[in-house]
Design goal:
The structure is a single chain. The protein is of the alpha/beta class and 220 residues long. It contains 5 helices and 14 strands. The chain has 2 domains: 119 residues, no CATH class; 78 residues, Arc Repressor Mutant, subunit A (Orthogonal Bundle), CATH 1.10.10. The longest helix has 16 residues. The protein starts with 12 loop residues before the first strand and ends in an 11-residue tail after the last strand.
Amino acid sequence: MTTATQDQGADIALVHRRHADPATITLEGMGARAATLGADPIGAVSALWEQGARHVVLPEPVDLSAAGDGERAVRALVALRELTSRAIAVEWRLHLGGDAEAVTPFRHLAPPQAVTGVPDAAGLLDQWRTDYFFGACVFRRGPGFLQVRDKRDGQLSRITIDEADFIAAVDALEAGAPADAVSAGIVGDLAAEGLVGRAGAHVWWTPCRVLRWPTPAMLF
């Protein structure tokens, strides 16, 4: 697969429906509708949820290869994080630039329908699907702190962030940002914990925001 023909200046298109079951397509009000992500993917997904979207298709592959547009890829990944947070069914594809480890910071997102660009793409996708479960890496905010709960490796790790400069960095990274807009040291520290993803010269905050507890809070 190649993504060289993508119009990088165009907006990111998507299609949304009120239900993922194909049997509902012909029902009144349940058909597919076109939309775009715009410059604010967080706001766009929130609006889709309010409109009743429960199934979203991103026709354009997310391209993390050297030929891809990093800002564009980050907007798509931020949208995927928000869709995953709301348990909205999503269909998407991922193109890698030869580095299978690039998926490590966001393997808690809903797995794609296809992966290309690495030698064992099928094996990578199978493992992603096997390991995936809702709420694998989430965060919540409190007064003056935020806490990440990460179970991507099978055991629960709790990371509490209460330094003002780190919280400000997370605020900037949540919607994605150029790497040089955030302290390199802070980005490095967060990336070491798998909490930051990178696409080209852009970086983004990978944990999903907790919108509702998938299990009793004390068990999670």
